């Protein structure tokens, strides 16, 4: 970035004056909306109440969307177009949202508008009518400090964009994730601006910008399809609350304040009241469970052994058992459980009405309803198609070995069925306790009993590689007619129940028509660190290619070997060294090691926060202690990793976990170990530098 001292002062002053004008205009827009009266329709019926509530909500959102955030610059770029390209305007400032003056003339154009696209796409070879691109630099307090011009006319290839990108990536981090709107790369822009349908699935190595792309895509879709999406809403599902806290400010900075960001547990499940061993959780998360649940539920429907005798006055009408049997068989094939039960009552009643008509009566709908609700029909329903709730079916399945065997058929082996059975079943389904995996099964049963209505407009699944088949089915059900953005990295799949391939993931979501794309430029992690972490890939994801870095950083990776006695002191020294630089610092260790290590840091006079204990730990402290299982999706300028072997040993997919942990650093990674490194990392050619005990 050209500093202000080097710039022609009048031009910088003019830009600053323009920025002030834009701020004033935004304040006026905000004020106008604030005082605008929300129309209220008189009357108290549901429609009117709904409309009034919707209007109030829309008004509140508009007010929020126009708040001028103090640390978010109002614009970040400028394009000079060839005269006449856009009617009446040759120059546009591009920003996070639209700002116009009192007479409606645009001062800042939204980055999502069509005319902003060349900011991301134009090159000297393909100018797209642009003659000059300007990029601005701002201080942390959003003060305009300088700008840099890139003429596209008569220019050769420029590396200015790369320098700007690098500066942006390496700008020290404080607190939550920030947007990348000033530097979205062309391959990312393709995904951000892809249409709402079909769904999109992005495989990408660590730090390729998947989360950033997903969030900017949501902002883009809300811009282009706001009305369509406002009906069903947009939801972002992330792996845990710490991650959601980390990403929470990106969309509001882009002017989008009405997107729910939640974990899968919050979206799908009742709070779990029990837990499963990993092997059992894996079985319960398997797609075979869908088949078993379907069989279990429908086994409640039986074959009638008697017909129905309906009396009206002195007349008797008989519907034979085989006739009821035919109705039951047809309904089983075509309905869900609860509506099927209602339909059975109606069809039996209809058969009675036919008999009445044959005897010369002319019964109407009221008679049909009376028959459907009559005692003999109710008795038939209770015998042949009883009312059931999901909990009742699942309780029986996990308590009754015969019922499980009969429902499982060939789907599960005898050993697997034994594992699924509860050791101490609750007396009744009402007192049963449910694990997180159980609640997903209950969700499936609920939908088999009665179709879930409504569909989200758009659903973003981040870290989707970790989701199970049954979770994906539950998510797909919530977005039947909407579209999905699936983001993930198969090499970072750490759950034992991970679905495996993107084809499978999309199949479970019922979005098999999704476009699958790959991002392979790693923006976060310097080359040396990517190359080091990628040594694990042949073991954890042999089919994936090695990601490409976009930068090398001097001394990015250090491996410090020490002994048990001086291990803690060495770690403290590493954290101190990391804190000597700028930006955020993390100490990452196996979950059961992190608290004692944090105590050691506190005893040494450092002031770390513990991630997980407080959701906003990353906002409040420069040094954060991160349990390895919470590291996914996060990043820090400097990272100290304690004892990789323990991270690996802590769980079945420990190598995948280590891969995640090793790829969190933007500029500096130090690995401190007393135990040998995992074999793949330990080969002589992989270690760039080794330092003996300090
Ligand atoms: N175009 C870009 N301009 C500037 N920074 C970028 C760009 N793309 C990605 N980054 C930065 O790279 C980092 C990684 O991005 P992000 O977290 O979206 O990656 P990811 O692929 O989701 O990573 P992971 O798989 O580790 O979760 C972030 O700091 C992000 O801001």
Please explain how this structure is put together.
The chain is 43% helix and 16% strand. Helix 27 links the parallel strand 19 and strand 20 (623-627). It has 30 helices and 23 strands. With 694 residues, it is α/β, with parallel strands linked by helices. The chain has a 7-stranded parallel sheet. It has a 6-stranded mixed sheet with strand order 3-4-2-1-5-6, covered by helices on one side. The protein has a 6-stranded parallel sheet with strand order 9-8-12-13-7-14. The two termini are 39 Å apart. It has 4 domains: 4-36 and 69-158, no CATH class; 176-287 and 388-520, P-loop containing nucleotide triphosphate hydrolases (Rossmann fold, 3-Layer(aba) Sandwich); 308-384, no CATH class; 527-691, P-loop containing nucleotide triphosphate hydrolases (Rossmann fold). The longest helix is centred in the first third of the chain and has 27 residues, at 9-35. The model is unreliable at 1-5 and 686-694 (pLDDT under 50). The radius of gyration is 31 Å and the shape is globular. The chain binds adenosine-5'-triphosphate.
Number of helices: 30
User: How much is the radius of gyration in Å?
Assistant: 31 Å
CATH superfamily of the largest domain: P-loop containing nucleotide triphosphate hydrolases
Number of strands: 23
Assembly state (oligomeric): single chain
Q: Strand fraction band? A: 15-25%
Tell me about the largest β-sheet. 7 strands, parallel
Uncertain regions: pLDDT < 50 for 5+ in a row?
A: 1-5, 686-694
The residue fraction in helices comes out at 40-55%
The assigned CATH architecture of the largest domain is 3-Layer(aba) Sandwich
Distance between the termini: 39 Å
Class of the largest domain in CATH?
A: Alpha Beta
Mean pLDDT: 91
Class from secondary-structure proportions: alpha/beta
Across the major sheet, the strand order is 19-20-18-21-22-17-23
Number of domains: 4
Ligand roster = adenosine-5'-triphosphate
Which word captures the global form?
globular
CATH topology descriptor of the largest domain: Rossmann fold
Keywords: ATP-binding, Helicase, Hydrolase, Nucleotide-binding
InterPro entries: DNA_helicase_UvrD/REP (IPR000212), P-loop_NTPase (IPR027417), UvrD-like_ATP-bd (IPR014016)
Protein name: AAA family ATPase
Domain UvrD-like helicase ATP-binding: 183-526
């Amino acid at each position: 970035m050209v500093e202000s001292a080097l710039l022609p002062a009048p031009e910088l002053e003019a830009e600053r004056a323009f920025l002030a004008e834009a701020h004033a205009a935004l304040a006026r827009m905000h004020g106008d909306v604030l005082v605008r009266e929300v129309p209220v329709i008189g009357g108290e019926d549901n429609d009117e109440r709904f409309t009034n509530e919707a209007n109030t909500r829309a008004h509140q959102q508009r007010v929020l969307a126009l708040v001028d955030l103090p640390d978010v610059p109002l614009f970040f770029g400028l394009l000079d177009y060839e005269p006449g390209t856009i009617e009446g305007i040759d120059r546009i400032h591009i920003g996070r949202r639209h700002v116009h003056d009192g007479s409606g003339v645009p001062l800042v154009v939204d980055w999502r508008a069509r005319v902003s696209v060349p900011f991301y796409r134009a090159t000297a070879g393909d100018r797209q009518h642009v003659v000059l691109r300007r990029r601005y630099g701002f201080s942390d307090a959003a003060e305009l400090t300088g700008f840099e011009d890139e003429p596209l006319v008569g220019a050769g290839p420029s590396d200015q964009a790369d320098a700007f990108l690098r500066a942006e990536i390496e700008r020290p981090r404080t607190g939550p994730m920030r947007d990348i709107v000033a530097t979205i790369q062309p391959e990312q822009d393709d995904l951000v601006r892809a249409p709402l349908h079909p769904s999109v699935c992005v495989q990408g190595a660590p730090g390729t910008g998947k989360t950033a792309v997903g969030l900017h895509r949501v902002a883009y879709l809300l811009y282009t399809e706001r009305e369509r999406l406002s009906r069903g809403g947009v939801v972002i599902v992330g792996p845990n609350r710490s991650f959601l806290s980390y990403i929470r400010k990106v969309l509001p900075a882009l002017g989008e304040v009405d997107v729910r960001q939640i974990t899968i547990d919050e979206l799908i499940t009742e709070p779990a009241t029990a837990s499963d061993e990993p092997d059992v959780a894996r079985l319960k998360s398997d797609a075979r469970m869908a088949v078993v649940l379907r069989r279990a539920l429908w086994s409640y429907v039986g074959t009638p052994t008697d017909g129905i005798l309906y009396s009206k006055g002195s007349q008797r009408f008989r519907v034979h058992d085989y006739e009821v049997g035919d109705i039951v068989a047809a309904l089983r094939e075509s309905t869900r459980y609860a509506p099927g039960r209602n339909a059975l009552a109606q069809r039996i009643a209809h058969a009675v009405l036919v008999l009445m008509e044959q005897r010369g009566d002319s019964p109407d709908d009221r008679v049909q309803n009376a028959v459907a609700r009559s005692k003999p029909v109710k008795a038939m329903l209770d015998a042949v198609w009883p009312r059931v709730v999901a909990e009742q079916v699942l309780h029986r399945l996990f308590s009754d070995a015969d019922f499980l065997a009969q429902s499982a058929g060939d789907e599960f082996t005898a050993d697997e069925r034994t594992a699924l059975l509860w050791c101490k079943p609750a007396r009744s389904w009402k007192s049963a306790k449910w694990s997180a995996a159980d609640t997903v099964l209950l969700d499936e049963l609920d939908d088999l009993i009665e179709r879930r209505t409504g569909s989200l407009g758009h659903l973003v699944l981040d870290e989707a590689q970790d989701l199970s088949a049954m979770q994906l089915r539950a998510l797909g059900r919530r977005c039947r007619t909407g579209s999905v953005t699936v983001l993930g990295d198969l090499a970072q799949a750490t759950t034992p129940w991970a679905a495996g391939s993107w084809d499978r993931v999309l199949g479970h979501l019922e979005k098999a028509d999704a476009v699958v794309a790959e991002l392979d430029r790693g923006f976060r992690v310097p080359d040396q660190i990517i190359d080091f972490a990628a040594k694990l890939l042949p073991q954890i994801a042999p089919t994936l290619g090695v990601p490409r870095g976009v930068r090398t950083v001097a001394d990015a990776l250090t491996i410090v070997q020490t002994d048990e006695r001086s291990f803690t002191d060495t770690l403290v020294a590493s954290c101190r060294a990391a804190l000597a630089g700028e930006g955020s610092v993390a100490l990452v260790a196996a979950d059961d090691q992190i608290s004692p290590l944090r105590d050691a840091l506190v005893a040494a006079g450092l002031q770390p926060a513990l991630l997980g204990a407080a959701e906003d730990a990353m906002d409040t402290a420069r040094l954060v202690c991160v349990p390895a299982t919470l590291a996914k999706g996060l990043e820090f300028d400097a990272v100290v990793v304690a004892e990789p072997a323990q991270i690996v040993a802590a769980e079945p997919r420990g190598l995948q976990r280590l891969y995640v942990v090793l790829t969190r650093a933007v500029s500096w990674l130090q690995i401190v170990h007393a135990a040998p490194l995992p074999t793949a990392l330990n080969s002589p050619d992989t270690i760039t530098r080794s330092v003996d005990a300090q």
